[in-house]
Amino acid sequence: MKHHPVNSGNKGQRRPESKTQQDHHNAKAEKTRQQKALQKDQQKKPRNKTERAGPRRQLNPSTLMAPLPAVLVSCRGMHPEGKTKGLKPENNLITIAWAGIVCSDPPMLSIAIRPSRYSYQLIKSSGAFVVNLVDKPLLESTDFCGVQSGRDVDKFEACQLTAVPSAGLEDVPAVAESPLSLSCRLNQICKLGSHDLFIGEIVAVEAKETLFDNHDRLCLEKARLIGFAHGQYYEMGQIAGFFGFSVASDNVLKRRMTDIRQKNKRRPD
Ligand SMILES: Cc1cc2nc3c(=O)[nH]c(=O)nc-3n(C[C@H](O)[C@H](O)[C@H](O)COP(=O)(O)O)c2cc1C
User: Fold this and answer.
1) Which protein residue has the closest C-alpha to ligand 1 atom 10?
2) Is 204 found in the same domain as 81?
């Protein structure tokens, strides 16, 4: 005979639940499950802005500033230990990433140079240098000029780059292949430590004709300049906004953003 728990009189065994009891039981279980899920969800949700931003990790103090420009600085000057023993001026190129604009009136920029660089002495002796911006076609030469010294190599020749008279300076050449060159007269050298800061007054700027539009406006985005971040080079990509866009009027925003979208579409890959 089939054993039936109801008739067995066994106290340890539960009676089968009625349909209503079962429904009640299921509803209770579902509610508990939902409450647990909610609790878990709430635990996961960030409680404040700091939590929402995510955890951060502290690193040792270092020069991890990014992005930086990667520029080719052309110079011409004398070096007492150079090939000409300081008797004749020599042209040279040095790659610099630690460069920036430091003043608008008068227009000034800075480049940080280690005293051991060959270019250090050349620039110091002539009191002038040219900062040549770099695009993709110039990138390999730029990297090369950053790992080879003018002590050993004629970098203009090795890279087949063209030294042309710079705007505003008599003796220091610019790089003809560069999209834009800023001619600088040395204003001062600030001793810092491993590097010294050369501050130059920008006396002239020259840009490639191809960078101008039909209205003679400079369109620097056409140059797709190269930047440097944490040991890697980047080609400038999509335009993401314009100066003051966060507070621009609706009209200006619409017009400028439409213009930007068109420019972004036009950029070849
Ligand atoms: C991407 C890159 C960025 C560099 N930035 C700097 C810099 O800001 N200052 C510096 O003194 N050297 C910098 N260097 C190293 C010099 O360019 C390198 O030592 C070069 O060979 C010096 O040339 P020179 O001895 O002919 O002057 C950089 C090198 C590379 C590849």
Assistant:
1) 113
2) yes
